[in-house]
Amino acid sequence: MAKKDYYQLLGIDKNADEAAIKKAYRKLARELHPDANPDDPAAAEKFKEVKEAYDILSDGQKRSMYDQYGHDAFNQDQGMGGGYGQGGFGGSGFGDISDIFETFFSGGMGGQQRNGPVKGNDLRVNLNITFDESYFGVEKEIQVHRDENCQTCGGDGAKPGTKVETCPVCKGSGQVQTVQRTMLGNMMSVRTCSHCGGSGKIITEPCTTCKGSGKVRRRRPVKVKVPAGIEHGRRLRLNGEGEPGERNGPNGDLYVVIGVQPHKQFSRQGDDILVESTISYSQAVLGGEIKVPTMEGTATLKIPEGTESGVSFRMKGKGFPSLSGYGRGDEQVQVKVEIPKKLTDKQREALIQFAIAMGDDDTAKGGKGFFDKMKDILK
Fold first, then answer.
1. What is the pTM of this model?
2. Which of 67, 149, 219, 250 is least surrounded, with the fewest CB atoms within 10 Å of its CB?
3. Are 292 and 300 in contact (CB under 8 A)?
């Protein structure tokens, strides 16, 4: 049977570059490998054809000969075609599909895993502040527990006066390379050196302070600048205040989670401050000015006549400063009309006359309680 065109087998154009050839082959190799198709002899045969096509087209000299003479250029080449059936797939040193593709497709073909600087771990602490401190901003000092480089040995883990030796197995790289013969050729894999644990060094006499780890647990003070206007649950990041990195890597970061304690008088809604203020019945009816508490002292609020209980008034710019640095929230004042529980004779008489003037004869004659009616009106 005539052999199929190598380019058609891989599904590529004749002008395809090396990267396109390799990409097409890897895709087909995954799909057709006998370990992935144990009950499909046709897939095994197709896999051999694809492998043969890749061996030719990935070699510049062989590809040039194929482009000129086709399959006739390799009729006498005993290295092609039949060599893939010897020993069977998955046996005689070829390894199974999981081993092959773990190294081949994960970048293990001669490549090395990263063994360079590693950033240190990030840390998180909680910081509780008062409502006032969240409004005005504050600077706090907190205690942070973290691993730091041992001062006795300088962080190398060796007893002072002794030397840190290079690992004889990995030669200081922290990794070892192994070569596995597979049906796809010789595959090189890279693994962490078990002799030194990936550190690349051997410590014969460990530091007595850190026990050879190079790190000690310490508590140290850190200053935190809390900006004005910060909300409950907001997180601040302090760059470089986390744990130290490995192999000269940068320190991690410290995240400070803010908790704001509630205020006895004020509450918060976004950047607005909410507060309640009590006014008298006469102020509600006649209107007037009242003094209202704010975070920066008292302010004057004008109450229009005929104000009902529960109405809110907005005082511009009396709220929290925005964390963006632009503008402020407002203060919303909800008024509640106070109904007096006790009256003098003079006050009672005045209100009776008021009720008569309002046409409320029933109240003036001792009907439903005046204060009950006032409560009904002001609900």
1. 0.57
2. 219
3. yes
